[in-house]
Amino acid sequence: MRRADLSYKIVLMPARSLGSLELAALLAVARLGHNAYGLAVRGDLAERTGRDYSVGAVYTTLQRLEDKGFVTSRASAPLPVRGGRSRRQFTLTGAGSRALREAERQAASMWAGVGSRLKPRPA
User: Fold this and answer.
1) Which tens digit of pLDDT belongs to each residue from 40-90?
2) DSSP reduced 3-state for 78
3) How far apart are CA 68 and CA 84, in angstroms?
4) What is the DSSP string of 86-119?
5) How far apart are CA 98 and CA 72, in angstroms?
6) Could you give the CA distance from residue 53 to residue 46 in angstroms, rounded to a whole number?
7) What are the structural domains of the chain?
8) pTM here?
9) Could you point out which of 5, 78, 85, 102 has its C-alpha 20 to 30 Å from the C-alpha of 13?
10) Phi and psi at residue 120, in whole multiples of 5°?
11) What is the DSSP secondary structure assignment for residue 73, as one 8-state letter?
12) Strands 71-75 and 88-92: what pairing?
């Protein structure tokens, strides 16, 4: 056996790929616009997925999206109530918009030709 036959190529996932929770959170940020802060994103995710994600899971996911350059964040002005705290507000970036369009394109490609082959569920 030749040495060249024993080698193999390791392919790593691109660092800018999206997991399912990341995609859902990124879509929530896009939907919420100026109201995209942690608890609002968590509420949107719960409403649309039917799952109650922990605050930590949502903020960790939003931080990963920021590390990847898909969102930016800033602290808002404190809420106008006694002891009001500022919120961490998230904004979709151009790279985030492109990632969403690419995810939509990939999903459409994966679903192409499947719809007519699915059997309807019994009532």
Assistant:
1) 999 999 999 999 999 999 999 999 999 999 999 998 777 777 767 778 899
2) coil
3) 30
4) --EEEEE-HHHHHHHHHHHHHHHHHHTTTGGGSP
5) 15
6) 7
7) 15-78+85-110 (1.10.10.10)
8) 0.77
9) 5
10) -65, 150
11) E
12) antiparallel
